[in-house]
Design a protein that fits this description.
Four copies of one chain form a homotetramer. Chain A is α+β, with helices and mostly antiparallel strands. Chain A has 20 helices and nine strands. Chains A, B, C, D: This is HD domain-containing protein.
Chain lengths: 409, 409, 409, 409
Amino acid sequence: MKSQKILNDPVYGFITIPSELIFAIIDHPYFQRLRRIRQLGLTDFVYPGALHTRFHHALGAMHLMSITLDNLRLKGTDISDSEYEAALIAILLHDIGHGPFSHALEFSLLEGIPHEELSILTIEALNREFAGQLDLAISIFKNKYPRKFLNQLVSSQLDIDRLDYLQRDCFFTGVSEGTIGADRIIKMMAVHKDQLVIEEKGIYSIENFLSARRLMYWQVYLHKTTVSAEKMLINLITRAKTLARQGLSFQVSEEFDFFLKNPLHLKDFQSNPQILEQFLQLDDFDIWGAIKLWKSHPDYVLKNISRMFLTRNLFKINLVNDPFSPEEIQEQMEKTRQKLAIPSADLDYFFSHGKVSNYGYLASDRINILTKKGKVVDVATAADLPNIKVMSKIVEKYYVCKAKNLILS
Amino acid sequence: MKSQKILNDPVYGFITIPSELIFAIIDHPYFQRLRRIRQLGLTDFVYPGALHTRFHHALGAMHLMSITLDNLRLKGTDISDSEYEAALIAILLHDIGHGPFSHALEFSLLEGIPHEELSILTIEALNREFAGQLDLAISIFKNKYPRKFLNQLVSSQLDIDRLDYLQRDCFFTGVSEGTIGADRIIKMMAVHKDQLVIEEKGIYSIENFLSARRLMYWQVYLHKTTVSAEKMLINLITRAKTLARQGLSFQVSEEFDFFLKNPLHLKDFQSNPQILEQFLQLDDFDIWGAIKLWKSHPDYVLKNISRMFLTRNLFKINLVNDPFSPEEIQEQMEKTRQKLAIPSADLDYFFSHGKVSNYGYLASDRINILTKKGKVVDVATAADLPNIKVMSKIVEKYYVCKAKNLILS
Amino acid sequence: MKSQKILNDPVYGFITIPSELIFAIIDHPYFQRLRRIRQLGLTDFVYPGALHTRFHHALGAMHLMSITLDNLRLKGTDISDSEYEAALIAILLHDIGHGPFSHALEFSLLEGIPHEELSILTIEALNREFAGQLDLAISIFKNKYPRKFLNQLVSSQLDIDRLDYLQRDCFFTGVSEGTIGADRIIKMMAVHKDQLVIEEKGIYSIENFLSARRLMYWQVYLHKTTVSAEKMLINLITRAKTLARQGLSFQVSEEFDFFLKNPLHLKDFQSNPQILEQFLQLDDFDIWGAIKLWKSHPDYVLKNISRMFLTRNLFKINLVNDPFSPEEIQEQMEKTRQKLAIPSADLDYFFSHGKVSNYGYLASDRINILTKKGKVVDVATAADLPNIKVMSKIVEKYYVCKAKNLILS
Amino acid sequence: MKSQKILNDPVYGFITIPSELIFAIIDHPYFQRLRRIRQLGLTDFVYPGALHTRFHHALGAMHLMSITLDNLRLKGTDISDSEYEAALIAILLHDIGHGPFSHALEFSLLEGIPHEELSILTIEALNREFAGQLDLAISIFKNKYPRKFLNQLVSSQLDIDRLDYLQRDCFFTGVSEGTIGADRIIKMMAVHKDQLVIEEKGIYSIENFLSARRLMYWQVYLHKTTVSAEKMLINLITRAKTLARQGLSFQVSEEFDFFLKNPLHLKDFQSNPQILEQFLQLDDFDIWGAIKLWKSHPDYVLKNISRMFLTRNLFKINLVNDPFSPEEIQEQMEKTRQKLAIPSADLDYFFSHGKVSNYGYLASDRINILTKKGKVVDVATAADLPNIKVMSKIVEKYYVCKAKNLILS
């Protein structure tokens, strides 16, 4: 009798790890590191329960993938055991390239390297260690495998990734109205000519899914307090990089120090495997550990922002529907500069403005409905879903945020 | 130490009955009768858990009302203890005039008497028994009380009634994606110039509420199987009435017999209190008890439809987006008549067609948003809610349904 | 692509019906009738949400059985496809012989025929209709199949029946602390020498399961109000039988009438298949339909008890830990007789006394633990579970209950 | 209209912060620091969802306290507004003296200073800042206030602290069978002669609560993997202290460095407020930040244990019911030493043994039941609760744990 590895998940009850290979991948330090990267970065400043990690999300997505594939098999879609395992691995590793506070740091600690690219590099590195056993997973992940539905399950507008993270984020934030009925959506999935489709009777679940996702964006992911905290983090890292590149040394981990000192681009990761290796040592604790140090740092920018994080004295933010005029921004900048009594050159660390945007449905990456008559149509053209077309409009909001006060000495 | 009356509710945990008067109302036979009227009629043919009653819904709505009023008081709205109790009574009794399988039988057992009218008559009857203690509740219920928000909480497009029934129906059907976040909506409610308003930051919850409600309509309330079962019930009662008015006697309860025999209109209820008293003896068990008898009745219409209910051999229904042409209906009728081998005169008992309709937002009964700047605007005009305007479009669907087979002897 | 039949269940999300044969069984009138028999009889007088039916419970148990067998297969236990389907059928039909308000009416409407016997007769009747396809299920159900664990899953102290009903009753009553962690228990199940065992690391789940079950007994199944309502029902049926056997006719369904008139024993069911057929027409609605009629019946016993049900004016009950002395009972009877002003001969209809009992663990039907060292031991001997031995003590409670008041005219 | 401060809690929905003073306390850096201290230390190695913090727990406990006091008021117990607020503050701050990974570090980073003492010192420090507004809360917390039930709600065998943490831990670990029905227990609470009592009808909830708590101990708090991880942490800190006191400097935060270098006793905290101030700068991130640094430290003990944490390569642990003999321990130590090839002097860093213990009910701190006849009795003497007496037996388990392998260079 071989004991099954199982994991507790408050969202689904139990998650079974279905194969030795998958267990070995989960056990790998690259994957274990996801235990130390929160799924929602700084969102716990607004929703204190939102402390769940990318580790749990990846496992949850693997679990849903396995339910989905079982269901498709029951409906008669032929899925081989290797395709099954590869799809599970592909979803398990789809976010493996995320660094700490990913979205925020993609554009500050790194110089704008998409995490998808780093995920691919990391999966390829793992594949070398696992002697090519991840070939098929990589092929699915890169959408080179002929059976397109497998990639669509990993990455599309109705992929398993979203089904898990929406449910999980909703669970841990406590925003119950974000519930999406992933169970029903999965039951409605089918494969038609190797494409992922949704049976027509599931259209209201899709509409509700898109609406719930929209809600989660404005209520959680783009919540003004989260936007403000992320901006603070970006400013903090930017300052540290500036100082590091001026030659200052920090008592941080050597990997973090490396990324502070060196401007790195995707090609550097591609040409030098050591850099990826370094990157895969980083996690949220490097940043938080630094904040704990920097709260007493002589540099007043590092000190102030670090202390703001530790006392939840975040930048005051104003998030509105209409853009601010250049004059208004200018005026607010000037007022802030005077109030904080800082040199103009440092204002950018304590004053930020910009926009956030979101859409409900992305027309270019359509969700396909299989009608009762066997036709495949875009969900946005379904006669009784007037909402969806409207939801494809991109909504933008504009913000200004700034420090409330500083300790200058 | 006075023990509090409490009731278990799987939806909210516990419901406290807050006053002696309210306890006496709940204990009254008119209210206890709601224990025997299901909230969702025949929906359990589709969702087997949907067996909850109007009794539980009324108590749940009272519970939410009490949370809502507590919250409004915390926000500074002055609500006197008598207003508080009256609002609780008004919501508790808002559905007291419902008969068995209400929506279906409003237009078959009764001749189209709206249950709201019967609710008022019943509350007035109770008020006589309770020596005028329900005066204020009646005034709120009839929207004659000057502080309009109290009536709006009882009856409007975002009333406590809906907040409870959507949550409750969602819970007992298991359609989890219908979750509406009633908690958050209640927290966002405020009173502005005696009108109920929603604070601006709650707009996404409202949007999601409307979208969830729409989902529940198509997924549950207007589910094709429910539509079909209700049509069968209407046909069954219509047949029984026809026979009763031809002089046939049934072994049913005397009250049910009375309503089968006599065509009654609202004015009959108003002029003769005995009729209301009779009506308030009816519940689902009268109908089900009759079905159990009629399954062996010599009349083949009663027998067949009753048996269909008991074996879940429901009318086959086709529910589509576009109207059927008169020719198509004619053709289907003829085919059905031939297949079932029945006289044309009886075809209406076994063949029905019609339409169902629903809307997401009713522009005429607007939901008011209180903006951060203190302005009151219709939710449908909020800049970043493109959905809502679209949801005010009425969606209609068309159906044809018919018996699959009959036992003629 | 073959569409899977699925059912919504608020407890588990979705239940899949895994084979054509099982679908046909569920569709059979004998099984559909379980839609009209509540799992918890009159318990909704205490817990208004407890309206769930034996239909839903049977489906839920089938669902858990399927999860259990999948899990055992993963652990290496060989289970053939026919064993799998037979085990599902056995659990699906384990309660098929229950009549309306089963436990109460087993000893009043029937003359003490255990529902297990009627279940066997019913499954055999179904087997004839299904041309022997239920042979293996019957063999498992009757514990004649050599692989004992299959029967143990259907009927033992830790069977799938209990795992479902405890969870389900807990869900619908709202007694959340009755939660048993069925998921974990199932994961801990294993098969050792064809016996069902629990892996040692699961012992705390077993302890908690037994403790939760004990709680559910005292908090729900033997709640004093339920005991009182059941006693009333027994008295009502007893009266109706007495009158029927004196020649009185009721306007009830012919099947109900048949059982009121005729004293029937197990051998009658065995010798005459028509009797079983009649029995399988009965459901809760026959009883409730009769109560609706009897509320106006000239017999004052029928009238009074029926009205008490309809207005929730239940017998007042006193449930205590120590037996009442004969004198005390005598005194209370006399007082009740005088208060109600009824003849002594009728007192038994309005006054009852007796005892209820429960145990936490039944030593004679042990739960087996498989230790890490591969030994099988009784859970009650596990060193660090002092509780369980203690829980095998039978706890008895004693009650007296009586009508509060009567309408005599 | 004054906006209420509310917080999202997936466990309870919403938590309202009921007063300005309480809001100011929550906003204080001492309290905000609890955001960075996990409730369950290293338990997420077993239950990946268990990442919730002392911050959330403290707020949840305050929420339950407020429900409890509302309920007691409804039952007629007079509770003044200042007592109400003070009780909320007392429970809010009951754990404020916890350091990072509290239970583990109480006896390694500190020299065995109970966190309760540090909580008192911290509350007193806050009281000075808040100009004496916490006087009454302190009096309740120290059990000097005459109305004993207020202290019993803060700290006793059935206190609000436990009601929250059991529910919360159960929610975030996903161990659903640990559900305790806090709602019902709170409804059953009453005050009798200024003592907290439970109404008799609540005894089964109490029994279940104790049983669930026992389950949570063995299933979660004393789970062998958690025991092993905590032991590793203690060994890591012990090593760091040893090195620090030999004069080694670490690049950690100055506060952490201070506690590594200086052996401190309660009297030091009492005599020098600066030490408490330093202590209240520490949180989990100091430890995790150090682990990230130490993974590359020249000291092989620090390096190895840090890496084990980062790759979840925990000490292998054997947890059994019977004590190990000295010989067995000796033998295992020797084997471990040889296998790891380390000097004897270092063995203690990589090999540990000891015992853990737990009890279900602590007879010395009884839970009082108020019988229907108005008598107060210990729950353990209630006639039909044979379990509880048995649960007061202390259960001990014994463990040996050791590193699996080392990197020596």
